[in-house]
Design a protein that fits this description.
Blueprint (H helix, E strand, L loop, with lengths): L13 E4 L4 E5 L4 E3 L6 H5 L3 E5 L9 E6 L7 E5 L8 E4 L3 E5 L5 E8 L7 E11 L3 E4 L3 E5 L6 E8 L8 E10 L3 E4 L3 E5 L2 E2 L2 E2 L2 E6 L7 E5 L8 E4 L3 E5 L2 E3 L2 E2 L2 E6 L7 E5 L8 E4 L3 E8 L3 E9 L7 E10 L7 E2 L6
Antiparallel strand pairs: 1-2, 2-3, 4-5, 4-31, 5-6, 7-8, 8-9, 9-10, 11-12, 12-13, 13-14, 15-16, 16-19, 17-18, 19-20, 21-22, 22-25, 23-24, 25-26, 27-28, 28-29, 29-30
Length: 336
């Protein structure tokens, strides 16, 4: 076990944080992560968040984006290779990658986050046709966990920077389910909630992303549900909304500390109860976009991750849509 020094560090001192596996520097007040030259500020003038696909009445192929560090409406980025809902996305600093969707497919496609334009076929595929899967990422690996049809417990991954390589089996979730959602720190990925065979789950699973193996129990969310939207920075995972009982859509926001184990804690409330909304995350914010309220919505809320409290209006998506709970990616999320 590492014990803290009795001496206060001087500004500019460095250390390696064994919990986050990150080099940190003391700024005179607190320890903060050392950023590489490849940062969202240099790439896109701040963290860029993208949403893709969803259900607007017909299925949609739109990709749109926003600067998460500001507020305002989303802007057109391009289009997916086909219109579908329930796509699941993840990202590195440079590339956004979406996979699966309804109509059921195993397709994977990608974009360069700092540009705009239509997605490109990844030339690799999921292990099987999949929709309503959870997704998350480290700086190098993208993961898809569980999903439909039928609900399963399969965890699969790919290397985001490559193309032409199919996903590889990683292990299994603790319970088979769909409509679960994911988020991550640089070392650990979490999968939250979900349902299968009319059973709603309150389960939080976790994996160590650099290895392979089965997921382990992390703790429980406040109320069993599915379509709960998730986002994180490197320290804290934040979960919002969800379908928690027949006819009941939650507005509750809750959170966990990613380096620990345990049950989630109340954070505050969304501006309106919603399920299957998308999320974009930066090192400081999570944006919750669209979803069922129970009607389709284009409203986006945001919270400051380091604090607690109710969400604030961010802006609007281009269209009212739902079934996009895992369709959000960014170049500044917690897994990086």
């Amino acid at each position: 076990m590492e014990y803290p020094s009795l001496d206060k560090p001087t500004a500019g001192a460095t250390r390696f944080n064994t919990d986050s596996s990150q080099l940190e520097i003391y700024d005179g007040n607190q320890w903060t992560g050392v950023q590489s030259g490849l940062t969202p500020d240099l790439q896109t003038g701040g963290t860029r968040g993208l949403f893709a696909g969803g259900d607007t009445g017909p299925y949609d192929d739109t990709i749109e984006y926003v600067n998460i560090d500001s507020t305002g409406n989303y802007i057109d980025f391009g289009n997916l290779t086909s219109a579908r809902s329930y796509v699941a996305g993840c990202a590195s600093r440079t590339r956004g990658l979406w996979a699966g969707g309804d109509p059921a497919t195993d397709i994977m496609e990608y974009v360069t986050i700092s540009s705009t334009g239509n997605s490109i076929d990844f030339s690799g595929n999921l292990l099987a046709n999949k929709w309503a899967a959870a997704s998350l990422a480290s700086s190098t690996r993208g993961f898809w966990l569980g999903g439909a049809p039928g609900g399963d417990n399969v965890i699969q991954f790919t290397t985001i920077a490559t193309t032409g390589i199919n996903c590889t089996d990683f292990g299994d979730l603790t319970v088979a389910r769909r409509d679960c959602q994911g988020c991550a720190s640089p070392t650990r990925g979490l999968v939250v909630g979900g349902y299968e065979s009319s059973t709603r789950y309150n389960t939080i699973d976790y994996i160590t992303m650099s290895s392979t193996g089965n997921a382990a129990d992390f703790g429980d969310i406040l109320t069993a549900g599915y379509g709960i939207s998730t986002g994180s920075n490197a320290v804290r995972g934040v979960f919002g909304g969800g379908y928690v009982s027949p006819g009941a859509i939650s507005n509750v926001i809750q959170y966990v500390e990613l380096a620990s184990l345990g049950n989630s804690v109340d954070f505050g409330d969304l501006t309106v109860g919603r399920q299957r909304s998308g999320t974009n995350a930066s090192p400081t914010r999570v944006v919750f976009g669209c979803g069922l309220t129970p009607s389709n919505s284009n409203v986006c809320d945001y919270v400051q991750i380091a604090s607690t409290g109710n969400a604030t209006d961010f802006g609007d998506n281009q269209a009212q849509r739902h079934d996009m709970a895992n369709a959000g990616v960014s170049n500044g999320h917690g897994g990086l």
